[in-house]
User: Fold this.
Amino acid sequence: MNRDEEVKTGYMERMDMHSRNEYLKVLKERYLKAKMRKEKSQILDEYCQNTGQTRKYVIRKIQPRVDLSPKPRKKRKEAYDGEVRAALARIWEIFDYPCGQRLKAVLQTEIERLRGFGELKISDDVALKLRGISSATIDRKLKHQREVLHLLRSKGGPKPGSLLKQKIAIRLTAWDTSKVGYMEMDLVFHCGSSTLGDHVNTLSTTEVSSGWWEGEAIMGKSQESTFQALKRIRGRTPFDWEGLDSDNGSEFINDILYKYCCREKLEFTRSRPSHKNDNAYIEEKNWTHVRKILGYLRYDTYAELSIINDLYRGDLRLYKNLFQPVMKLVSKERIGGSIKRKYDIPKTPYQRLIDSGQISEATRKQLGTAYLSLNPAQLKRSIDAKLDKLYHTYEQKGKSQQVDPMRKIVPHTVTSFMIQRPPVGLPT
Assistant:
């Protein structure tokens, strides 16, 4: 290393960051004033030689900064103005608030019909725009309306049904068993060891005062199917309904059932969340009238659904309500570590309805005629025959589906499994 290189190296080592930046400012003025490319290259070579920094780094530091701030964009003229949005909201309301894809299909066929009926007063230009709007744009234009109607399920917002729960009172007092017509209801799953997929569910209802029970099997647990099953049950009960009580499931806490109760002047109440004993009457019936009969097997075919409904609508309801006595708790007293309970005289739901004096004379005679004409032993045989048919259908279904025992728990025998809960974990 010669003398000049030693001097330069020593100077470079002694030069701190502040000194290099000041040196760069001086050279930057010379660099920007230089017109020839060769002159600019010499300036860069000088700085790199004296500081030891790379050429690309110096170029980035010495060149003028480019303004990268976003420039205001020219606002595009809105294709769908207020008149189009108002007409879109009107059509959306008429067809019960469908999603954008469904509403787009409606717009293709129903705009002219609505204009003909006088429900939609719009120009031809607006109608043309409505027929050409995309489903994504529909959802975007109706976003505010969805928020107003609480139809938008945004993250962190209220859960579905939470606003409706505020309108449905929680029943905190004991039932007045002196009046007939107050119903408790619940949904019993027949899903086996897995809740995946569609399966049969039992809508179980009981009248609190008499213990009268009615059941209806449905596929799935949608709000509409649950509501229709409830209406069918109400149609065959021999007394007028005064009120309904349920748990907090979405199959019950929904606008369909709430509006129906308001329209029919039925008192609609619900239990406290995570307090199963609030529905003690129906929970008892779920065991005695459903689980002890159908067990814990998985029923997921319409053939099984038909057999279960045939059982519920005929023999089972007659057998349980006309010939199976029930006891009502009169009082209970805690004595030390035990509770002493007193019950009234066992009576069938039919007898309790007759004794209440709260059913019409025509209904009273109809129940009496049915009671006298029916043979309980024959009803029992008929129930057993239908259960045998149901279990045979279940076993045949298992054979046709070739169920893998390592993936789905299948009992070795149907009868032994009927009164036992399915095991937890893998089979041994």
Summary: Confidence is low (pLDDT under 50) at residues 6-12, 151-158, 402-428. The longest helix spans residues 376-401. Residues 83-148 form one domain. The chain is about 50% helix and 10% strand.
